[in-house]
Amino acid sequence: MRKDYLKYTDIELYQDEEMFKYNSDTTALGMSLEEMKNRTVLDMGCNNGSLLLYAYMKGAKRFIGCDIFQKALDLAEMNLSKYTDNYEFHCCRVQDLEIEPVDVVICNPPYFKMTRDIKEDEYYKRAMFDESMPLEDMFKCFRKFCKDNGVVYTLYPANRFVEFYQMAIKYKMKFMSLRFVYDKKKKFALRFIVKMKIGPMTELNILKPIYIDRGDVIFDED
């Protein structure tokens, strides 16, 4: 186990060397969260609780984390307990979670398609590959856990945008804002971050992009 800090903050974060760790996706999604004063937040696949800590910084009041690994939840509890006691954790598949709908749902999902036999350890496979939470399952969970007036924040590969958009239409989730994430050394966008609500697709705000530069996450707000 090692002690780090939530990037660009003074929030302490403990991580396990054997498990999937905080990365630029976590930073980009966490820093894209908007004010959520006194809201209840669910992180679908919370790992070590880093996104819940970002939600804490944005004023959230109650925190719910779900993960299939108890070891991850123990870390999340260690990390959250320094700042709040208003949390609960559930060790199960997100698809099997049973809670009341919440104000805010966050998800940094496994999104790579399993195209070959992967020999890496189980933590890595579950954290990275979408067989553990297919895209349609993810949208079913968004509808199940998000209040009618709630919001969802998530991130997905840019080259799967059309598939994601079609699923949003199918499950009647509307885009409120959209932001693409680029690696400065690459030609095409890597990811997109989207804020959604329940309802038919209408107009949306396309925000300035985020850039990844040698691990640094840079918001183009100038």
Question: How is this structure best described in words?
Answer:
The chain is an alpha/beta fold. It has six helices and twelve strands. α1 packs parallel to α2.
Rounded to the nearest angstrom, the distance between the terminal CA atoms is 38 Å
Largest sheet: 10 strands, mixed
Give the proportion of residues in helices: 25-40%
The stretches of 5 or more residues where confidence is low (pLDDT under 50) are none
Strand content: 25-35%
Number of helices: 6
- C-alpha Rg (nearest Å): 16 Å
Overall mean pLDDT stands at 90
Q: How many β-strand runs?
A: 12
Q: Strand pairing plus helix content: what structural class?
A: alpha/beta
Categorize the overall geometry.
Answer: globular
* SSE series: EEHEHEHEEHHEHEEEEE
What is this structure, in a nutshell?
By secondary structure, the protein is an alpha/beta fold. Helices cover 25% and strands 33% of the residues. Strands 3, 4, 5, 6, 7, 8, 9, 10, 11 and 12 form a 10-stranded mixed β-sheet that branches. A two-stranded antiparallel sheet has the order 1-2.
